Amino acid sequence: MTNATLRKGAATVGGQPVTLVGPELKVGDQAPDFKLNKDLMTEVTLADYAGKIKLISVVPSVDTGTCDAQTRRFNVEADKLGDNVVVLTVSVDLPFAQARFCGAAGIDRVVTLSDYKNRDFGKAYGVLIDELQLDQRAIFLVDANNTIRYVEYLVEMKEHPNYEAALAALKELA
Which residues are catalytic? Predict the structure, then answer.
């Protein structure tokens, strides 16, 4: 990777250190714009969710147990959050796989978005695993003005995020 911040050993996969590409975002930072696929032909950006509070749940792949559980948990919680909150699940899975997963799992409140084309989201949010070209697990809470209000970068890919802390931060904003 050229012209990118490389954070060697910032995360692990199965206990093995990996390199994350991009900056480590912090509370108070402006959320970087992104371009993600809602389906193969439809791209969305941060502006598509203007005026909404955004809980961005990043998972490596919806086809793993931890990612499945994380997406299901936020789908259940999304039902309680009101219309001014949108829950976005981002992975590098193809939109076909995301749609299949959502249909089989009954996921209907979370919007799944794919970072498969250019890994733009992963690079902008500092979650792209250079060695695997997957996005590392993380949670970002972005307010209606696109300021980051909560961040959790998971060190080990297989770990669950702190759901309670993310939801408590969200309830303070909503």
Answer: 67
